[in-house]
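User: What would this chain look like folded?
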Amino acid sequence: MGRVMEIPLKGDLKDYNLPKILFQLNRKRVTGTLSVSTPNFTKKVYMIKGDAVFASSSYEDDRLGEMLLKAGKITVEQYDKSVEVLKATKKRQGAILVELGYLTPKELFWGVKYQVREIIYSLFQLEDGAYEFVEGDVPTQEVITLKMSMGNLIYEGVKRIDSWTRIRREMPDTGMLLKLSEDPVSLFQDVELSTQDKKMLPLVDGTKTIKEIVDSSWMNSFEAMKTIYVLWSIGIFEEKEMVYEEIKEAGETVSLEDVLQPFAEEEEAFIKRVNDIYSNLDKLRLNELLEADENADVEIIKKNYYKLAREFHPDRYFSASDTTLKDKLTAIFDVLTTAYTTLKDDSKRKEYFSSFGMPPKKEEVSTEENAEEQFKKGIDEFKKGSFQVAADLFEKAAKANPKKSQYWSYLSLAFTKVPNKLKEAEDALLEAIKLEPMNGEHYANLGLLYLKSGLHKRAASQFEKALKFDPGNIKAQKGLKQIK
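Assistant: Here's the prediction, encoded as structure tokens.
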């Protein structure tokens, strides 16, 4: 998978909100510890390959005994007795509660998971606090670990936010168009949507602004805005950016039925299918993996890709007992995405099928004329919705004629449409700015990128630069208004 635009590994929640931080760490599949500190406490989330597995807290009310007491699982008398034994023996309170007969092992198992979830959920209430992620091994002594998708954790945590000003501050401008994400990693993540949130999905069709969606819903404005905020935070909704209005995009779509339909496949059959494909992953041709022959058209390839992306989404390992399943699913999912990127484009598909048994052709763009030809082809591919192909063509044009800022600018646009390529989009825009340092449009587009990644300070700085060179720039004006 591509890189995402970097949110600093150390900073303040005032500048980078927690959902964005967790979302990035999950996508980068990192292992390490995220610490969040205030003057009163420090809370830690331990992550393995992007998933939260455990949490700890220095806040007294977050201790297991206090949690179980507040949840009604033990009495005050039982709590006091367990603390007395704890002081004398230094054993873990959970083990003491089981030894004293106050909890069954099954209830302790529930209690520890409940404690971990509540510690993490409590972090979503914070608007101020220092955070730091340190990559490296995490404590391995915990035998009871959280088995919950990051999507569900963020979903449940964000639902506890009830600050209207915070939601408005962190959301895009209400005049922004919203659409369903085109990224299967976001669409098919393991998230148990409420009935109310499922009803909101059909309203987000890429033609309505956030304000229009709120106005057309059956809920009051705050509840509607909060529902949009929740689904936007976990990546199911995304902004439909009109950065370059002259390009009419024909983006990829997926049906709501595909998003919401649960899998009924038996675990044993599913694991066998994963193992079969994984063991043959290096032997399978891309079209075999996508179950598409040479005569398959773009619609069939797209339909097969989304079906298989749902089936082999890495989050499906949460419901299985096989501990090696996530790595296998991740490998399959990544190759599926590569296959789709290659085969959805007519010319690339023909080249692929004609190249069996032949060495790959090296295609170099060496002249300005060829660079312009690649650029025009990129425009055509972008209009068809083939964003990765368009990015490849724009990149060839930019490398052949690196002094033309327009190529870098459009390369950045194409990368914004490809999952997990925001970092590349940023790099391309920075190249355009080097070539045209007084072009306000470049700074405005860079501001939009930073805003999309939750980097509000950086975004504001770029919008201000845009207005310095182009005082009437609408995107920069709207961007600053949204941040404030």
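The mean pLDDT is 84. If you want, I can go into more detail on any region.
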